[in-house]
Amino acid sequence: MLSMRLVRPTITGASCRSFGRTNVLTASANKISETPTSDTAQPLNIFGEPEGPTEEEITAKRNIARLPKRVYNRKLKGVYMTTAPSDFSTKQLRRDYAEFGKSTGINPGVCWPTKQEMADLHFIDGEFYQTFDQMKERVDARRKEDIERAQAREQEIEANLAKLVVWRKEMLDKEEKKANEELAKKALMDERIREVREYIGYNVEPHDPKFIEVMEMKEQERKAAAKKARKLAKREQIMQRLLNVNSTMSQLDTAKGAEKQRVLDTDSAVENSIAGKAASVDEKIPKGEK
Questions:
Q1: What is the SS3 assignment for 114?
Q2: 86 Cβ contact partners less than 8 Å away, ≥ 6 residues apart
Q3: pLDDT tier at 289, thresholds 50, 70, 90
Q4: Which segments carry the region annotation Disordered (predicted)?
Q5: 197 touches 204 (CB < 8 A)
Q6: Which of 25, 95, 177, 207 is the most exposed place for a label (fewest CB within 10 A)?
Q7: Cβ contact 90:84 at 8 Å
Q8: Are 160 and 168 in contact (CB under 8 A)?
């Protein structure tokens, strides 16, 4: 015969605690569910606390920019609201109607100017703004100036193009002159290097100290010779000036002598003329009257 053995389930401490906690949670849930709730009340969790944040808390958390209530509602939410007396000014009412439309409840007639405002606008237009004819004349004058300026510029370009050949020739002459100067300078330097090498007696590089020393000596000799030549030229100029002064003085003396002789000749001629006239008068007078 088969022997049957009954196995009694063993319940550990953890299982007991788990079962006990489950019973407690179930009892708490049943107790909470038995609590009367209204339709408007926020749902509660198993601990009897409000489940989740309220709508005001959610809205406040969404406003991370910390904007004022007026700016937040108007700019972000698009909700029209009035919070200050300035919201009822004509200018602000027009802005609000243009932004929010009929939902504001503003009379659309406020968007049109009154008779007095129209009269003021007409006065301002006539006093401070130009008429259509005046603006047209100004535009025509400006356009005419632009055309004249463009024509003058075209004429200037044509004149410059006509001078292009001359300018090109001048540029080529200048470049040729510069190249010739460079060649002359190079030839002069080569000649000086040759003189230094001949003075030393053997071939030496230009960066050699001996070469540099002789080059400086030759340069001083050239400067001394040039200075002496300038002194001689200056002395010759002074001598030439002295000779010119002497010749000028002699010419003046000759001119003075000629002038003096001319004056003497004139005086003698006058005296002879007077004497001749006196003799002729004496001859005409009768002897008895004398």
A1: coil
A2: 92
A3: low
A4: 34-55, 252-290
A5: yes
A6: 207
A7: no
A8: no
Q: State the first-to-last Cα distance of the chain, in angstroms, to the nearest integer.
A: 231
Q: How far is it, in rounded angstroms, from Cα 164 to Cα 154?
A: 15
Residues 6+ apart with CB under 8 A from 192: 215, 218
d(CA 22, CA 30): 12
Tell me the domain boundaries of the chain: 55-112
Q: Are residues 215 and 192 in contact, defined by beta-carbon separation less than 8 angstroms?
A: yes
Dist CA 196 CA 217 (whole Å):
10
**How many residues does this entry show for the chain?**
290
Q: Are 105 and 85 in contact (CB under 8 A)?
A: no
Burial class (CB in 10 A: 0-12, 13-18, 19+), 196: buried
Global pTM reads: 0.31
SS3 of residue 171 by DSSP:
helix
pLDDT tens column, 148-202:
999 999 999 999 999 999 999 999 999 999 999 999 988 888 888 888 878 877 7
Tell me which DSSP letter residue 74 carries.
Answer: I
Cα gap 125→134, rounded to integer Å: 13
In the block, tokens 């038995």 appear at: 34
Q: Are 22 and 28 in contact (CB under 8 A)?
A: no
